[in-house]
Model the fold of this input.
Amino acid sequence: MRNESQLSEDATFVIGPFDSIEDADAVACKLLGYSRAELLQMHGSELVPVERHGATAVSLDRMRGGNINFRVGVLKRKDGVTLSVSVRAQVLGAGRLRLTVSQRTI
Done:
C-alpha cells in the first residue's frame, strides 16, 4: 500500500513533431517549477539532462512509431534538481505525442 507521501498526480505534456512543448497541464508546471507560458516556449530537450538527450530522442521517435509506450527517464526542474520519472506515451498523430509523466520515488 502506498502512503500519502507517495501519492501524486500525473503531469501531462503534448510534444510536437519536432519536440517542442505544445501543451502542459498545471501538474506539469508544478512538477517542474515552470509556468505554462515558460513551458510552451521550450523545446523538450531543455527538460532533460544533456547526457540523456540522445537516448531520450531515440525513445520519443520509437514512441511516435508505436514501438514503445512506456519508459523510465529523468527530467530536470527549473531549479536544476533532477527527477526520476515514468513516462507513458499516446500517439496523437501528425508526429505529436501526449506524455503522461509520474514522479518515481526511490
Remarks:
- The first strand starts at residue 11 and ends at 15.
